[in-house]
Amino acid sequence: MAWSVWILGLPGSGKSTIARALQSMLRERGINVQVLSTDILRKVVTPNPTYSEEEREIVYGVLVFIAKLLNDNGVNVIIDATANREAYRERGRKEIKNLLFAYVKCPLEVCMEREATRKETYGAPREIYKKGLTGESQTVPGIGVPFEEPKNPDVVVESDKLPPEECAQRILEVILERFPL
Q1: Whole-angstrom Cα distance, residue 117 to residue 60?
Q2: Which of 71, 98, 128, 175 is the residue whose CA sits 20 to 30 A from 78?
Q3: Can you give the pTM of this predicted structure?
Q4: For residue 123, what pLDDT is reported?
């Protein structure tokens, strides 16, 4: 029985770092898992992204479709995606049978600081908060567009209080509890 875990949160919250740490922990247990990142997927689906609501609908629709397709074919999936709107998460909940949500909670100010100084972006665009604050971009979650906190995440990790490995460990514990491997 394949499953998906959707790691969501503000840009700069640590989603990608946690996703990769979780992938490593699962692989150490002999569990194969594919990471799906909206930042990487967007480069294929929308090579010149505008981050409009319509474009986000398309990207999240494709993301959910691919995760479901992989699960249907026995591949476990870690979704690394901001998912700033509950509607995107609801779509996943409706279409992916074995799905849990891991909310990477982090104050906007901490995310902004991290995003401004990070060396590895894992495919994410650079300086998005700076562009949002200067008005160059109107579509930055938490600044130009809302970030709707998830209503019922399966696990919440506070990445401003815990290192990425501990966040990944807590998510792993929920996966093992929910989907005995």
Answers
A1: 27
A2: 128
A3: 0.93
A4: 63
